Amino acid sequence: MTSSAQTPILPELKNARFAVSTVFFLLGVLFATWVSRIPAVSHRLQLNEAELGIALLGLAVGALLAFPVAGWATAKYGSKIVTTIGVILMALSLPLIPLAPNMVGLTLMLVLLGVGNGGTDVAMNSQAVDVEKEYQKPIMSSFHALYSVGGIAGSLMGGLMASLQMAPLWHFGLVTLLTLITVFLVAPKLLNVPGTGEHGPVFALPSAKLLGLGVVIFCVAVGEGAMADWSAIYLKDSLSTTDQMATAGYLAFSGAMVLGRVFGDSMRAKLGAVVLVGTGALLSAAGLLLGLIFPYPWAALLGFACVGWGLSSGFPVAFSAAGNVPGVHPSLAMAAIATMGYTGFLLGPPIIGFVAHATTLTWGLGLVVVLSLIAAAFSRNVKMADVKG
User: Fold this and answer.
1) For residue 1, what pLDDT is reported?
2) Is the pLDDT score of 348 beyond 70?
3) What is the b/e burial string over 201-224, where b = at least 16 CB atoms within 10 angstroms of the residue's CB?
4) Closest CA to 217 of 324, 344, 373, 352
5) Residues 216, 108: one domain?
6) Domain count of the chain?
């Protein structure tokens, strides 16, 4: 194999990497923009917790509907056009959310947002795999790191807009305008990998190799969802910390995850995909186990950080591996594992809640320890990530 040090990277390829990186960042910003203003939108519509929960399901339904369609469309027409359409759809749907007159209208708008989010997710990861193959070295984690950075940027902007008492409609409209301008500038630079042009199935049952990848990404997704939904509650209710300390739980997790993804590509180049994902999952299990055994805030924060760093390479490496599974179009493979991952996001936190209700939240979060060990056991399935195109 010719290394990137021996083969100069063409300017067109560098531009494509910049464009894909920008799309990942934008998707993080768009999603975080909505999440940061959920309280304001919910308050305007006077929704209770149950009604808001039903509306939020619209986002999941939209994404799950989009995954197979986006995989098929990307295989047929190429990832460039589908990525562009997906991010534009998500951007345009954002300012429609504050216009919803009631819970039903909000649910429908969130279905639309979910379709844009899910479609872009599949297509941009397919585009990222194509760029990574051309680079002939690991760069997938850098894309996912920028998604995380975009999420942080969107959250900070949302907090600022809320403090300025800017209405969500104007806030969302501003983000949409900036996104559309940015897409107009970078979309032409995306790598132009033509689709097959053939009519294939929109959905197909995943192969055994994809199921193995799906197990890894499912376990990782449950861990990420658990940290988002339960870390603050564990610190506040189980360890009796202050509200400020409780918010530090997710910050410890997300900060460690960003760092893990920043260094993930270089570590994957040195260690290989299997070792990186396997040892990371073991770190997640061991760190969280110790954090749950010792009932102190510092131990919990350290455990949450271990989960963030340990699971940080799960998604990017799994997508890289999916793009190299023999006999399966990369976009269809990514649609399959994205569906399994999103299922983990949806099912994990409620299951932890049920376990916590029956026992304690400590035992509920213990599920993440178990699933991290399962991810480590199935880590051999990511070895295709090291295959160079």
Assistant:
1) 37
2) yes
3) eeebebeebbbbbbbbbbbbbbbb
4) 344
5) no
6) 2
pLDDT in tens, 154-164: 888 988 998 89
Type of residue numbered 237 = D
- Specify if 305 maps to a domain: yes
Structural domain harbouring 59: 11-188
Q: Are 65 and 115 within 8 A, CB to CB?
A: yes
Section 132-138 average pLDDT: 90
Round the CA-based radius of gyration of the chain to a whole number and report it. Answer: 20
Same domain, residue pair 285 and 157: no
Residues 148 and 107 in one domain: yes
Q: What's the confidence (pLDDT) of residue 10?
A: 83
Q: For 260-299, what is each residue's pLDDT tens digit?
A: 999 999 999 999 999 999 999 999 999 999 999 999 999 9
The dihedral of CA 258, 300, 358, 219: what is its sign? positive
Q: Where are the beta strands (DSSP E) in 302-362?
A: none
Alpha helices in 191-296 (DSSP H): 208-233, 243-262, 264-271, 273-293
Rounded Cα gap, residues 320 and 129, in angstroms: 6
